Amino acid sequence: MKKSSVSLRSLGFSKVLGGLILAGFVSAVHAQAPAPAAPAAGPAGVPPTWAQGRTADGMNPALVPNPSPLVAKPVSELFVNKLKAPPGFKVELWASGMANARSMTESPSGTLFVGTRFPGNVYAVVNKGDTREVKTILKGLHRPNGVAFANGSLYVAELSRILRYDNIEKNLDNPPAPVVVFDALPKDEPHGWKYMKLSPDGKYLYFQIGTPANIIVPPYTHAAIVRLNLQTNILDYVAYGVRNSVGMDFQPGTNELWFTNMGRDWAGEDLPNDTLNKLARTKMNFGYPFCHQGDWLDPELGKGRSCDEFDKPELKLGAHVSPLGMRFYTGKMFPAEYKGNIFIAEYGSWNRTKKAGYQVVRVVLDAKNKPVKLEPFVTGWLQGEEYWGRPADVQVLKDGSMLISDGEAGAIYRVSYAK
After folding, report:
1. How much is the pLDDT for 175?
2. In what order do the strands lie in the sheet containing 391-396?
3. pLDDT at residue 32 is higher than 50
4. Which terminus, N or C, of the chain has the lesser number of Cβ atoms within 10 Å?
């Protein structure tokens, strides 16, 4: 396997991270992340990264991250009949048996590729009309959450590197060895899994580098959105102050990047909001860790700062709803008023006594591309305070229908419309 050259001219990772280690940031940055089955404790005297920022008089100390499943649920445990959408819309099971199915991308010929976080698999779903064939095409990868497709090749974002599988659709049963496109990304587990989006011109792969803990002053290499030039292999930073974005899409017509962002934990049941943001220009700074949701200073790290220093989100989505994948609706099947709407998969809360999220929401924009309405679109994964599924991503198919991946159930549902 030939490894492509890597340029770090715009980063200086070694110098920066080396300086941080000498400064004693190791315990904060590299504290152990929660294991799939149960949250893990950090080194002696250091809380796990997800618990940093929790105070003794704060929220319910029994709250811990929901474990990610390593197996898919059987069809008998998929309560698709409980999923509700507006009148005229139909929600049905489209494919199943994909443990922790998360990010999705579709090839021009209609093959759907699906990434995962913990199982280490990448799936391909081949649409055969009335049926779908699910193939596990890649195994043993490290957090292969992000997937993108370009020029016959599948790009997969692992924790610390970007891989490319050429001519993949003709080799689904025997994928080629990957080409390592870039392998100089941070190796921090907390918020290290990537969501990846190809730019409209096909020149760049956009993805995030999340903060390495709940609430800290991160290295400048983290809490950002970057883009990788596929011709030069140069990584460029395009947005700062982004705690963790696991969903992004380019708006048709403007080609502006919109993205979801998850707010910090342990600041309260209803603070701060997760947000929907727009990258109107490069080098914007959205405030983390000093300012959250555009107008709320962090109780500790925000001292001496002002939210007026930073760029504002386009929309507050609610506290702890965990917005992941998002897409602009570009199809023709849904009613005309849905054209250009944003659909967001809310994975659901753990850091809240009363659960929130666990749904797909619809954001309506006005003629000036300002959000004017936020409403539920597909609900039913949360029944009372119990959930049986968690929507992770949305994908608009060529026929105008929409797919929703379920990271908890390991399934994909199709939303269609008929008058």
Report:
1. 97
2. 89-96, 411-417, 402-406, 391-396
3. no
4. C
